[in-house]
């Protein structure tokens, strides 16, 4: 059962210079259901598959608003995500109080990166068992970041994390060049199509299991200036039109599904 | 070096019977897997460069910076575990700010290297922490002005204790490299990460040391830095990479004493030359092979 002697805590390097506890924490992210994020020149979207423990239970939330301009999607330990989410909310609020404007998305993401790194260097602590996609808008435009339990944070054009997310990433890589100029609706549809790639057979997107979150910049009516479209989460009937619009959508479907078949994981 | 420390390598700060701390040696292994970083100290400044391996097509191009500004005149680049590097940078910024608060003057490159060397070393002392999985290269340009003596009257004493030495110069470009053990040295040219061997070999060919000081100018150093990163990159094994470069000149130079990213036009020119140099090299090798074949005939 034990892989080696070097994997019991996050303060022990293996002879190859690896820290297994951190790598195992990254595995926890793959246990969570899949979430997808994409950023265009005007919008940043997050889409997610929600899971329910049993037929009659409610679905676990996957998307959380952090501040007016930022939202996150989570994959992994939900309780760890809530800790990070609370931290991010407080930091955003504090930033508004002191500086009178919203926090740049990169600054926010680097804060949780630093927080998570400490957990990988001190005995008695454990790495966070959650991965995040952080989407938001600031002065520089829309952004999408990935956060890993190691404390690694990187800005992405589009990304997917969680169970079977490789299929979604393959879809995103194929359509990478289209995203920059996508409108709001088209960007959401790309997100949902990527999400569908990662679904287990016989599962479909429904109004119950699908969440969509959008933040963006919109041209104001009066003058040429842009206004922030606050990060908003859409659930239930609000997402039905989007789901219908990608139903029976064969584009990229069958062809993209092949290739990464080796990484089959059972979605509980 | 690659031996395994049966039983003595499971916790940090433990000495093996022959006096080694294996966890620190393993941390060095983490560095050796990271993208190559280099620093070049030249006549009128310092250049830092890093090879950023593109691990995914989905990464936003040129958005994720790896070389950090720690103070106006100080830059840091590192190889190894990137989150550890970010922590190192945070600490270096704290040190630089605290120094300004206390001494009312910017921290010198040597002093920052000393502070950060001490910080890294502290992480080799306790079982409750692990060493940093990075090797950091610090580049800086210290003020060339003569430092003010406290309570100085006029031009100060001309000789004796605290006196001035005629013709003595102050400040200038400096380069330091700190290892996971906390060990640090000043360098003319420094390289770490996966391609450090090849990079070191190239750095040694440059005129960086010597009694007369380096003859290499900043612009030449930028081009050499780009070329060295291209040489150190293993095309066949490694994925594609992005080149990130920063530089620091004196107050009269292009960056006016600040640590800044190398302008896009100059970087692209340097990359063009680097690619060209590599192609020329390959052609030469092919010719060599052909030449030998002909000889055999």
Provide key terms for this protein:
heterodimer; A: 268 residues; alpha+beta; five-stranded antiparallel beta sheet; disordered C terminus; B: 297 residues; Proteasome subunit alpha type (chain A); Proteasome_alpha (chain A); Ntn_hydrolases_N (chain A); proteasome (chain A); cytoplasm (chain A)
Describe the 3D structure:
Chain A: One of its GO terms (cellular component) is cytoplasm. Chain A: It is found in: Cytoplasm; Nucleus. Chain A: Keywords: Cytoplasm, Nucleus, Proteasome. Chain A: Belongs to the peptidase T1A family. The complex is a heterodimer of chains A (268) and B (297). By secondary structure, chain A is α+β, with helices and mostly antiparallel strands. Chain A has seven helices and ten strands. A five-stranded antiparallel sheet of chain A has the order 8-1-2-9-10. The radius of gyration of chain A is 19 Å and the shape is globular. The two termini of chain A are 23 Å apart. The C terminus of chain A is likely disordered. Chain B contains six helices and ten strands, in the order αββββααββββααββα. Chain B is α+β, with helices and mostly antiparallel strands. In chain B, 35% of the residues lie in helices and 21% in strands. The chains are: A alpha+beta (268), B alpha+beta (297). At the A-B interface, helix 3 and helix 4 of A face helix 1 and helix 2 of B.
């Amino acid at each position: 059962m034990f892989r080696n002697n070097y994997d019991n805590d996050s303060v022990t390097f293996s002879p190859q210079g690896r820290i297994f506890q951190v790598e195992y924490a990254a595995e926890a992210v793959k246990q969570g259901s899949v979430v997808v994020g994409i950023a265009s020149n005007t919008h940043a979207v997050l889409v997610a598959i929600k899971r329910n423990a049993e037929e009659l239970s409610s679905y676990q939330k996957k998307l959380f608003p952090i501040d007016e301009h930022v939202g996150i999607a989570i994959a992994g330990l939900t309780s760890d995500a809530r800790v990070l989410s609370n931290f991010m909310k407080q930091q955003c609020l504090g930033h508004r109080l002191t500086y009178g404007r919203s926090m740049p998305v990169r600054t926010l993401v680097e804060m949780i990166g630093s927080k998570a790194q400490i957990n990988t260097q001190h005995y008695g602590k454990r790495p966070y068992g959650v991965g995040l996609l952080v989407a938001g808008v600031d002065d520089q435009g829309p952004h999408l970041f990935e956060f890993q339990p190691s404390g690694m944070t990187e800005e992405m054009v589009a990304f997917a994390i969680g169970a079977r997310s490789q299929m979604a990433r393959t879809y995103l890589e194929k359509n990478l060049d289209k995203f920059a100029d996508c409108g709001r609706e088209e960007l959401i549809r790309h997100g949902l199509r990527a999400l569908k790639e990662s679904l287990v057979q016989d599962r479909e997107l429904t109004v119950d299991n699908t969440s969509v979150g959008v933040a963006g910049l919109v041209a104001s009516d009066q003058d040429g200036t842009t206004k922030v479209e606050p990060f908003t989460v859409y659930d239930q009937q609000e997402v039905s039109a989007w789901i219908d619009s990608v139903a029976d959508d064969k584009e990229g479907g069958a062809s993209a599904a092949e290739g990464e078949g080796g990484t089959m994981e059972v979605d509980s | 070096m690659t031996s395994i420390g049966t039983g003595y390598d499971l916790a940090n700060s433990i000495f093996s019977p022959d006096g080694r701390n294996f966890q620190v040696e393993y941390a060095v292994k983490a560095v050796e897997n990271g993208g190559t970083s280099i620093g070049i100290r030249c006549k009128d400044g310092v250049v830092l460069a890093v090879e950023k391996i593109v691990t995914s097509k989905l990464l936003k191009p040129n958005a994720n910076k790896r070389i950090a500004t720690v103070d106006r005149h100080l830059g840091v680049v590192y190889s190894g575990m990137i989150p550890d590097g970010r922590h190192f940078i945070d600490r270096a910024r704290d040190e630089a700010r605290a120094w300004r608060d206390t001494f009312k003057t910017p921290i010198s490159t040597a002093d920052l290297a000393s502070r950060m060397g001490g910080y890294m070393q502290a992480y080799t002392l306790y079982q409750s922490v692990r060493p940093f999985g990075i090797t950091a290269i610090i580049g800086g340009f210290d003020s060339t002005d003569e430092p003010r003596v406290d309570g100085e009257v006029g031009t100060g004493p001309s000789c004796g204790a605290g006196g001035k030495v005629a013709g003595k110069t102050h400040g200038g470009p400096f380069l330091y490299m700190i290892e996971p053990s906390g060990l640090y040295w000043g360098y003319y040219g420094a390289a770490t990460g996966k391609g450090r061997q090849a990079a070191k070999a190239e750095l040694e060919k440059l005129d960086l040391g010597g009694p007369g000081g380096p003859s290499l100018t900043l612009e030449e150093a930028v081009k050499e830095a780009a070329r060295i990163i291209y040489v150190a990159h293993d095309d066949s094994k490694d994925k594609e990479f992005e080149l990130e470069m920063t530089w620091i000149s004196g107050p009269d130079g292009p960056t006016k004493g600040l640590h800044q990213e190398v302008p896009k036009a100059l970087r692209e020119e340097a990359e063009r030359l680097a690619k060209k140099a590599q192609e020329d090299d390959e052609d030469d090798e092919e010719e060599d092979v052909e030449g030998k074949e002909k000889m055999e005939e």
